[in-house]
Amino acid sequence: MQSSRLRIAARLAEILAVAAWHLARALPVVLFARVVSGPAAARRGLWRCVVGAIQDLGPAFVKFGQIAGTRVDLLPPEALCEFRVLHDAVRPPSKRAARGMLQSRQGIRVIDPVPLGSGSIACVHRGELEDGTPVALKVKRPGIDRRMWLDLRLIRVLARVSARLPSVRGMPMADLVDYVTEAIAGQLDFAREAENIHELRAHLAGLPEVRVPEVHRERSSEDCLVLEYLPGLDARTPDSLPPETRAELGAAVLAAAHRMMFVAGFVHCDLHPGNVYLTTGRVVILDAGYCVRLPDRVRDLIGEFFARLAAGEGRRCGEIILESAAGCLTDVDEKGFVESVAESVGRRAGPGNTFDMAAFGEEIFGLQRQFGLYATADFVFPLMALLVLAGTVRGFTGDVDFQSVGLRRGSP
């Protein structure tokens, strides 16, 4: 116990030191850019320094940075441009570490030691089986398990400390953070991810516009997933597609989200731009390590919530949130909460309204804080996942109405 506390304290000191170093380094860079090139260049320089700090702070911070990088409603364009690095171009390991990662694997030849993409947990390299079949090798970063577990434990400790602050008293911070960190930690288990990929492929098999690469489970190991190689995945592809094609593929993403969440109760929580690619006729979904399964009751409540949302039935939306509440403050005004949700739905959702998932989600979470009502993590987490997906889809098309995600129907 004592050694664990010492490791957490040492990691916290390391984080503070890294943050202080980057702050000291960023100030002269930003000031110089402002003097020489103006405010816009200074802002770009600042966000570039922030992204560099996130990468140096470690994988848990990169993961939260990936989520933040989808929030086009919160971050300015220059920030979003820099945060794209965190989706699939995180700084790769050193050449020496990469050689250790890519040591000889029976029956598999590494084509290129330079990764096709690099994320918070692993890097993806192109490989080839002995019969010439091309494959993608998802290989864990060296020492990632220990580093991630330590950071997530630190985040849990900080969440429990912050839960005592008056401003968040009554909010189930610890439960929500535990839920999130457990899901993130699941990405370290490649056997579990292989099962998730198999399940995801089964759920989406009826959608010809959506492709999930197959995993070669007999070739994979605890630190390397061997996957079907899909060429031509490029984050710049949407820019070359006509608007109608982007809109059709955006609708396909929505259909996949419906099939996963509302039919199967299976939530892919990591659908940022590094895991959702468009080709000329398909959507490709990657990386199923960060997934959760919903209890049947929660799946049904969320399904009804979005169905009522699309119909503009705001009072029922408020009542559903009450039904899922994990706790509330003394003498909470439940009637006032339902009326406030109804007013929000009336302004933002339902027939005739242009629905903005991010703005609506922020307002609903704000109302919960205001009235002291907090839904269970099982209910909140899918909404957070949809916020991430909404940011991703908005990056390549603005023609998808996210309030209709719960209305789509299809066979499981």
From TrEMBL:
Residues 110-412 form the Protein kinase domain. The keyword Phosphoprotein does not apply. It comes from the Bacteria. CDD domains: ABC1_ADCK3-like. One of its GO terms (molecular function) is kinase activity. SUPFAM superfamilies: Protein kinase-like (PK-like) (SSF56112). The keyword Transmembrane helix does not apply. InterPro entries: ABC1_dom, ADCK_kinase, Kinase-like_dom_sf, Prot_kinase_dom. Keywords: Kinase, Transferase. This is ABC1 kinase family protein. It comes from Amycolatopsis speibonae.
